[in-house]
Amino acid sequence: MEELYDFISRLPKAELHLHLGGSLEPELMFEKAKKNGVKIPFRNPEEARKAYVFKDLKSFLDLYDLAVSVLLDERDFYDLAYAYFKKASSQNVKRAEIFFDPQIQAKNGVDFDTLIKGLKKASDKAGEDFGLSVGLIMCFIRSMSESSAMETLEQALQYRSWITGVCLAGKELENPPSKFERVFMKAKDEGFYSVVHAGEEAPAGYIWEAIRLLKADRIDHGYNMFQDQKLVNYVREKGIPVTMCPLASVGVGYFDEVSKVPVKRALDLGIKVSVHSDDPAFFGGYINENYYAVAESQKLSREEIRKIAMNSIDSSFINEKEKMKLKEEIEKLDR
Length: 335
Fold this sequence. Notes:
The protein has about 325 residues and is an alpha/beta fold. About 50% of the residues lie in helices and about 15% in strands.
């Protein structure tokens, strides 16, 4: 198994489903809480880590909101992002398209300028230090209003060149994609890519809405697509990328073990599926740990693992020249 992990570690990859706040390790959370005078209900990082056990998505989101409340100034967001970029680069991530949450941070008194400037500086430094290509994807929180999302989009327009795309995330049930159709149409008109969390806890109809109404360029999670064979066929035929996050999806109780996360099922059907870490600080694994958990539990061959990495590059928003370069590196590895 050490040999398998070594192969995974050396594979070039793209991380396409990573919530930046979900990479906030307890040690950094405590450091920032102390600096900013923010009270948190844990005595030390070890106690916080033991609390990272969740019964459902809501219980996780509640703790996520608490954790990121310690981040208040530009340096905080720089430090958080740079720590993730350093870790990702050590796991041979070549392209990172990360989610950030202006609406959540606004509730903590953080303005858009502070957040985006910290992330941009960290992205630029990661390019200099690690050769890492970064795309910033702005999330709209689906439990919040359409008007709040539209206001956030308007704030983002002055930083259009810094932001790659927009995402719909958060508590899925009772917050269908159709709620945000006008926001996403404006975002698409402004040239942003569109990615949507859909079919994680909600039925296949939410995925249809993400594709048809929000014009999703990628579907995040997408597990419940298998309820609808027509949808499966459509996703395959159109080559719509699907990002899956094994350790996180087990961590919030959608599956009771990694072997049941439908990565191999999607691969076997010819769906452009890839594997990512979602919220690694909360669920015990960054991208290599997620690859390994799937590969070991689902008995993936090296060629299947290689295909997942290829899919991640193909599904990213980098240019075709860069895609070809990275895919050639993947193809040549251990040949």
